[in-house]
Amino acid sequence: MKREAIDMQAVKKRNMEVVLDCIRQNKTISRASIAQMTSLTRATVSSLVEELMKKGVICEIGEGESNGGRKPVLLELEKDRSLAIGIDLADEKVIRGYLCNLEACVLEKVEYPYENNYISIFNAAADIIMHLLESANHIGKVLGIGIGAAALVNPQSGEVLFSANFDIKGVQLVQHIAEKFGLPVYIENESNAAAWAEKEYGNGKGFRNVFYLSKGKGIGSGIIINGNIYYGGFYGSGEIGHMMMDSKGLKCSCGAVGCLETLIGQSRILERIKKQTGRTLNITEVIGGYLNGESKIRAVVNYEAEYLGKAIAAASNLLNVESVILGGYITGYGSEFLMTVRKHFYSYIMNYYRDKICVNFAKLGKDAVGVGGAALVLRQIWKMEII
After folding, report:
1. Looking at the structure, do residues 180 and 57 belong to the same domain, yes or no?
2. DSSP H or E run through 354
């Protein structure tokens, strides 16, 4: 009897996931349409809908068009009642926090500076979370916190395995935040978080196989295969910045030779700009010079676009993705840069793939990592794990 009860609970949970997903994907829908689309009985749908309404994730919004009988009552997500906090722990100057609703719309964004030691990082993140929780009190209830970190992480245990730029390895950041705020906390590598956000709410929506490349201080990527984040053997997938592009090139900080980062990493781009112009610029100034048509800067940025095109072509040939998304500071270069990347991409991709893979900038732009953190929480809501 006990086993049967467990099995029945699992079936109910799965059916509730199906009903919630049906409402989420269709925006507004009636109970009868849910039953028709899911092959669940009307009685089952009605029972599950009532429970989801009590949990505060869906609501009735009025009557729809009639097909001859009674007008159907329409349902939709109660999008602002259940909320999620996302933390972007990938910028070398500030930590950003995002308060998002069930549609991953940003209701509030805040950023705090920090120093690169664990106490400062934790305190800045805690202050951000406290601020957003206070804001949420006037809107709805926060169900969890998600972190996108510039680190190699084990998302199952919440452990940070390695971080080149942040003092967060082995310090139980996730546990400490969970204990302080009494909420579930999730963590992903920054590129994985951004890739998931784009797949669910951005330019990767509708695709099951997505390659997201982000260019900041380094070059990283997040990979979605068959609708799930691909981690590899030990959570290290996506290190496209360390893909060999020049066998006779420079030695990389990772210990290998000719990595993509030795050619077009941010520091190398700034070095090339200085060599060409005699000026020491930051990346924002480089973007401005490119947009203003400075020929020497444009030559370097076009070189950057060429190698990005080659790199994403190699990744696409290997992974057979349907969508390639580019994020990070390169989105600031604008549409002409994207066209140049595409030109080189299509020169190096297999002919058969050319009209099957789309290459776009991230729809979520610079917010992709933080919204991705919130999306980690939303994913648990859709799985009925935290409501």
Report:
1. no
2. none
Task: Render each residue's pLDDT in the chain as its tens digit; 387 residues.
Answer: 555 556 888 999 999 999 999 999 999 999 999 999 999 999 999 999 999 999 999 999 998 887 767 889 999 999 999 999 999 999 988 999 999 999 999 999 999 999 999 999 999 999 999 999 999 998 889 999 999 999 999 999 999 999 888 999 999 999 999 999 999 999 999 999 999 999 999 999 999 999 999 999 889 999 999 999 999 999 999 999 999 999 999 999 889 999 999 999 999 999 999 999 999 999 999 999 999 999 999 999 999 999 999 999 999 999 999 999 999 999 999 999 999 999 999 999 999 999 999 999 999 999 999 999 999 999 999 999 998
Number of structural domains (the chain) is 3
pTM: 0.94
Pair 149, 61 in one domain: no
Strands 152-154, 29-30: pairing is unpaired
In CATH, what number is assigned to the domain containing residue 10? Answer: 1.10.10.10
Structure tokens, 235: 């959570």
Q: Are residues 108 and 244 in the same domain?
A: no
**Token representation of residue 111:** 């950023």
Q: Indicate if 214 and 128 belong to the same structural domain.
A: no
Q: Is 387 domain-assigned?
A: no
* 8 Å CB contact between 155 and 187: yes
**65 and 175: one domain?**
no
Domain housing 102? 82-195+368-382
Residues 265 and 329 in one domain: yes
Q: Residue 324: which residues within 8 A CB-CB, separation 6 or more?
A: 210, 211, 212, 213, 312, 315, 316, 345, 357, 358, 359, 360
